Amino acid sequence: MIARDNRLRSAAVILLGLAMLGVAVLGLGQYATANTELKFFRIGTASTAGTYFPIGGVLANAISHPPGSRECARGGSCGVPGMIATVQSTEGSVDNVNLLDQGRVESALIQADVAYWAHSGEGLFEERGPVEGIRAIANLYPEAIHLVVRAGMGVRQVEDLKGLRISLDAEGSGTRADATLILDAYDVGLDEIEVYELPAGESADMMREDELDGFFFVAGTPARAISNLAREVPLTLVPIRGPNAEALLERYPFFTEHAILPGTYQNVSHTQTLSVGAQWMVDAEVDEETVYLITRALWHPTNRALLDNSHPKARQIRLETALEGVGVPLHPGAQRYYAEIGLIPPGGEAEDRRPVAIPAQGE
Q1: Which residue of 114, 120, 195, 261 has the smallest Cβ count within 10 Å?
Q2: Reported confidence tier of residue 224, pLDDT bands at 50, 70, 90
Q3: Which residue(s) pair with 147 in the sheet?
Q4: Peptide bond into 222 cis (omega under 30)
Q5: Calpha distance 75→285 (Å, rounded)
Q6: Residue 36 lies in a domain
């Protein structure tokens, strides 16, 4: 199975790379330009069945501008001159940290909390120690912390979980780490609940069979596992709010406030919770000019239509939230761009962000 997965992963990368090379070759024939250096840039994502993979494809499209392509000012791509970006499927955020650390990808999509723990050597990376070579390009979109319980059980706050059968997700997962922080913040000990260690799909199946009372899940909304379950089992989402949540926001820079709106899941009302960002990280060794041009290309006004018309989550990728919940130092190239447009002061970091007008269209 592992060998087959690796073959599929390699095939996905090769096919995408060949397709983009084909575009480059055709472009060279029609719009030949001299002295344009060809650059390849890999984006690690996750499983091809998840959200990170198609979002990675959108980003690759936004920043690519193969040699010979029509110029941005003439209606062509406004990506990085000479760049062909490719998407690589992976095992997800923790795998992506390892791939960046090993130099096997230039950039990757990583959950904000995982990136923070990797850089600081805390949480999931406490035994391993800091992974110092990762830097941030941008926060992309929020992944909400869902605390799902069966309706009618009288669970109105986190403290009401005591005595219930609750899945915290698999050991070593980002969801499991976040769930543990939340329970601790609300003074709910692991010995006060019946702990299960199951991914969301298996947790939903057990709730269908009335073998589980609830589960944590960190995911963009709407999460398919919860949407499907809500059509079969009456559900409640438990709010994560109040002084305990405020303490988490103060302690951990990767958490942000988030609202799951009515109608997101069947018969589930507005729920205040926390979220962590899906964030674009880059190897610290990538040169400043390249990352500057990538960041500028991502936020070029002509790419707004690409983001809005590609994938539902891509619509949430916005300059206004580009630095929200970023707990890893910005790459100098990204830092330079955000200072240039006034989003941060010169030499500033994500926590120094300030309101900014959207740049006017142009190169």
Answers
A1: 261
A2: confident
A3: 216
A4: yes
A5: 32
A6: yes
**Residue 83: how many other CB atoms lie within 10 Å:** 25
Q: Residues 10-42: pLDDT tens digits?
A: 444 433 443 444 443 333 333 334 456 899 999
The CA-based dihedral angle spanning residues 287, 109, 261, 222, taken in that order and rounded to the nearest 10 degrees: 150
- Burial string for 20-51 (b: 16+ CB within 10 Å, else e) reads beebbeebbeeeeeeebeebebbbbbbeeeeb
Q: Alpha carbon 245 to chain centroid distance?
A: 21
Indicate if 101 and 245 belong to the same structural domain: no
d(CA 104, CA 151): 46
Residue 359 lies in a domain: no
Single-letter code of the amino acid located at 344:
I
Residue 162, number of CB atoms within 10 A of its CB:
16
Assigned domain for 295 exists: yes
If asked whether residues 261 and 302 sit together in one domain, one would say no
Residue with tokens 């899940």: 217
Token representation of residue 266: 């069947």
Report CA-CA distances (Å) from 140 to 20, 55, 87, 328.
Answer: 24, 9, 16, 14
**Which among 276, 297, 322 is the end of a domain?**
276
What is the percent of the chain with per-residue pLDDT over 70, rounded to a whole number?
Answer: 88
Task: Judge if 160 and 306 occupy the same domain.
Answer: no
In a domain, 357, yes or no: no
Q: Which helix (H) or strand (E) holds 157?
A: none
Question: Looking up tokens 């951990």, which residue turns up?
Answer: 252
Residue 331 belongs to domain spanning: 2-141+277-352
What's 178's domain CATH number?
A: 3.40.190.10
- CB within 8 Å of 244: residues ≥ 6 apart: 158, 185, 186
Rounded distance, CA 65 to CA 78, Å? Answer: 7
- DSSP code of residue 293: H
Cα–Cα dist 357/363, whole Å: 16
Mean pLDDT confidence for 219-245: 94
